[in-house]
Write a structure and sequence with these properties.
Elements (H helix, E strand, L loop, with lengths): L6 H6 L4 H18 L4 E5 L15 E5 L3 H11 L5 E4 L7 H4 L6 E4 L9 H11 L5 E7 L4 H8 L11 H5 L8 H9 L3 E9 L6 H9 L5 H9 L10 E8 L2
Parallel strand pairs: 1-2, 1-4, 2-3, 4-5
Antiparallel strand pairs: 5-7, 6-7
Length: 245
């Protein structure tokens, strides 16, 4: 099996990440429904593969390079004949997967964490068919909480790496324009894009407010809906893409 440093343990212990993951999942499911996807490839499932939360698909392949996340996904899949789980980097499977017909490919939120996002996208480009929708997401440099930190004098640039960025040795901080450009420069056409969940404060501060009863689940749901009023300021960005013709 592949070794992926301490990333998995560090990621699993992030404060507020479980909550944000729920809103991220809602956004992914919205796109899956929008494009009526049934044959799905999830690249980088992390600790919470999507098939745990829905089964409205004909087949799903999960490609996960981390040992811990892979083992969890494998155990969760059990004997479900619609699900396959593979411990590998997508770059090593591109040629093998070219013959498969996926209508929806999810690139987990890791393109900002690696030194070779272009190589990953070129691999996905080989796998995708003309009608395949590619969905991906990353943290947003123009998130409300980053802009607030900048205007408060806490950081001197919204593109400055946060403590979490340093912990995970993240290589890039994307805004909507630079993230879309990453895809268009690598042969994709962005069909729609946006952000979700207005996060006013850091993960740690959000957990503290929840723990002290200052905010609750209803407020969190409201913050997710606030992107309707503050488009582009959500905690995370997403894109839906197809191959350039």
């Amino acid at each position: 099996m592949l070794q992926v440093s301490n990333y998995e343990n560090d990621y699993t212990s992030l404060p507020f990440e479980d909550i944000l993951r729920g809103y991220r999942r809602e956004n992914i499911f919205r796109s899956i429904k929008q494009y009526a996807a049934k044959r799905i490839l999830e690249i980088g499932c992390g600790p919470d593969p999507l098939f745990i939360h829905f089964n409205d698909f004909d087949s799903m392949l999960v490609v996960e390079p981390g040992n811990i996340f892979f083992e969890k996904a494998l155990a969760a899949a059990g004997a479900n004949p619609k699900i396959r789980v593979t411990n590998a980097f997508i770059e090593d499977l591109a040629e093998e997967l070219e013959k498969e017909q996926f209508d929806f490919i999810i690139i987990g939120g890791f393109l900002h964490e690696i030194s070779n996002p272009e190589q990953v996208l070129q691999s996905v480009k080989k796998i995708a068919a003309a009608t395949t929708v590619v969905h991906s997401f990353v943290p947003n440099a123009r998130s409300f909480h980053r802009l607030l930190a900048f205007e408060s004098g806490i950081i001197d640039s919204i593109y400055k790496k946060s403590a979490h960025d340093e912990l995970f040795q993240r290589t890039s901080v994307y805004d909507a324009d630079t993230y879309s450009r990453l895809f268009t420069d690598n042969g994709f056409r962005v069909s729609d894009a946006g952000s979700y969940f207005i996060k006013p404060f850091t993960h740690t501060q959000m957990v503290a407010m929840l723990s002290n009863g200052i905010i609750d689940g209803a407020v969190l749901d409201g913050l997710n809906k606030m992107t309707g009023y503050l488009p582009g300021l959500g905690a995370e960005l997403y894109v839906n893409c197809t191959l350039q013709s």
